[in-house]
Design a protein that fits this description.
heterodimer, A: alpha/beta, Rossmann fold, Alpha-Beta Plaits, four-stranded antiparallel sheet, 13 strands, B: mainly alpha, 0% strand
Chain lengths: 303, 258
């Protein structure tokens, strides 16, 4: 685990609008990292600064120990920029081969590499197509494929699954997951469930400021823990009362009609999840999902 | 953000080849070349060859056909340059395609690579049109081959130098607006407005005339009246202009938000 991104007092101003306001954080390589926040929070601006597309107004940034945009980062850092489109005059394979050539591949190896990444994105049949003949989803996948050329160490993905059908979105999640042993991904997305599955670290930006840098994985060292239960049958009062009767339960919060977040003392009842399953079985209640800890949405946005 | 010289040259070479393939290896490029060839056929037959007897008397270069070609090409190519070199980076920037590129090549390679590619593409067109004119002249009089080749080489060199600052100006303007049309409009505006302002101000303050030197192509009228042997004597003007405009373009490219 080594530091890959370091921002200190980073600010970016567009005229009178402060898009990034004194943002400081440090990220280590490893599992994918999520960047979340509402529209206009500064996520894309942060990505653009990290990629070297924009120069910061103040503060310092280092990516893999170098200034963003440095030639030392070529082939090591890649990105799926938001809304960036491929050149309409060339086929997607020609363009990806061109990018691979710029990354140091020979002409023959560049063709092979372009084919490899397009195959990863299930675009083998569309290799010889011009961008104008491809759907939005296919273009998005082609743009993700360009980000994977040369197996970079760090990849920035801005809304990688937005606008994709569920099957292709799943394929992209699988690819990210399988490549994350060798590549660190920084992913910006509004899909918190997706980020929860993929990422371990989450950065929350709001109005240009870093509000939280948190871990998604369950922290077993703390006294208090959470179980999130999603029931099939909404019998709110009865379920809530029964959950409250379980040992060491501190409080029950009902998010929706059939979803409950149980706060309990983990030290006193480390096997509460098993007790819960037993209780549900005895009562004959059907559940859909039991999750250890809070959902990412609750972690980030519940007060 | 400078890469090593080898990496810089390699990236620039790959970008030049890619831009070349855009014109010479794509269907759209061939369509443009075919259209250009067709227009050139009519220009050669109905303009260049028609004015040859008249121009040959006034300027007196050794090969009459090349003399009239020189007079036409001196204004044809700068005009053509405005159209074919306008889209060096503007479309890619507004489309976001440059974002894919700058992760793999430094901004200097992209800027200079595209400039050189445009210069080489124009060189191909200049050589092709000069060669067809020379062939026409030699078909009329076979003894003109030797002197014709020398004249052709001087014309190609001169035209190439003339096009440097205009192409560099388009490189710079292409970085500042978002569409090819805007680049062309801006280029014409700058040309017309800057010339008018400099002429107007220098009427009252004659020393201001020196700023006329900054306008690409300002030496064209003077150049068209020179004997063949003296044409390169004015080459310093476009070369200096090109140097300054490329420096300015590089400055803008380095600081541009992509």
């Amino acid at each position: 685990m080594t530091g890959i991104i370091r921002c200190e007092n980073l600010s970016k101003r567009y005229g009178s609008n402060l898009a990034l306001d004194n943002v400081s954080f440090e990220l280590a390589s490893g599992a994918p990292i999520a960047l979340v926040g509402p529209n206009g929070a500064g996520k894309t601006t942060l990505f653009s600064v990290l990629c070297g597309y924009l120069h910061p107004s103040s503060g310092s940034v280092s990516v893999l120990g170098n200034k963003p945009g440095s030639s030392k980062l070529f082939s090591q850092v890649s990105a799926l920029p938001q809304d960036a489109q491929l050149d309409p005059s060339f086929t997607i394979h020609e363009q990806l081969s061109f990018y691979a050539r710029l990354q140091g591949y020979s002409a023959k190896a560049a063709n092979i590499e372009a084919s490899r990444v397009l195959e990863l994105m299930q675009l083998t049949d569309a290799m010889k197509s011009l961008p104008k003949s491809l759907s939005h989803g296919m273009l998005k996948r082609a743009a993700i494929a360009q980000a994977l050329i040369g197996k970079p160490k760090l990849v920035f993905l801005d809304e990688p699954t937005a606008g994709l059908d569920p099957e292709n979105a799943r394929n992209i999640r699988q690819q990210i997951s399988s490549l994350s042993d060798t590549t660190t991904f920084l992913i910006s997305s509004h899909n918190l469930q997706e980020l929860e599955r993929l990422c371990e670290t989450v950065l929350l930006l709001e109005r240009g400021q870093l509000q939280q840098q948190t871990q998604v994985k369950v922290n077993t060292k703390t006294e208090w823990d959470f179980l999130t239960v999603l029931m099939n049958d909404p019998q709110v009062e009865e379920v809530q009362a029964s959950l409250q009767s379980l040992a060491s339960v501190e409080s029950i919060a009902s998010k929706n009609k059939n979803e409950f977040v149980i706060k309990y003392n983990h030290e006193k009842a480390p096997d509460l999840d098993q007790l819960l399953l037993k209780m549900l079985s005895e009562k004959g209640w059907s559940y859909r999902q039991i999750t250890r800890g809070k959902t990412l949405e609750d972690q980030l946005f519940s007060s | 953000m400078l890469s090593s010289p080898v990496q810089f040259l390699r990236s620039m070479w790959i970008i030049i080849c890619f831009e070349f393939s855009r014109v010479f290896l794509s269907a759209r490029g061939w369509m443009y070349l075919f259209t250009f060839g067709l227009i050139w056929y009519f220009l050669l037959n109905y303009v260049v060859l028609n004015i040859t007897p008249l121009v040959a008397q006034t300027v007196g270069w050794p090969v009459p056909e090349l003399t009239s070609y020189w007079q036409v090409a001196l204004y044809l190519f700068p005009g053509l340059c405005l159209m074919i070199t306008a889209n060096q980076t503007c479309s890619d920037r507004s489309r976001g395609t440059l974002r894919f590129l700058v992760l793999r090549a430094d901004r200097d390679s992209i800027f200079f690579g595209r400039f050189i590619a445009q210069m080489l593409i124009q060189l191909v067109l200049v050589v092709a049109t000069t060669a067809t004119t020379l062939m026409t002249a030699v078909m009329h009089d076979g003894s003109l081959m030797g002197t014709g080749l020398v004249s052709a080489a001087i014309i190609v060199t001169n035209l190439f130098i003339v096009l440097i600052p205009i192409t560099a100006m388009m490189s710079l303007l292409s970085l500042t607006v978002n569409s090819t049309r805007q680049v062309m409009v801006l280029a014409v505006l700058i040309w017309v407005l800057a010339s008018a302002i400099i002429k107007g101000v220098s009427y009252y303050f004659p020393f201001f005339e020196v700023f006329d030197l900054i306008i690409p192509g300002r030496q064209l009228s003077e150049l068209s009246g020179l004997p063949q042997a003296q044409t390169l004597s004015l080459a310093y003007v476009p070369l200096l202009q090109g140097f300054v405009l490329l420096l300015a373009g590089r400055f803008v490219m380095q600081r541009a938000s992509l």
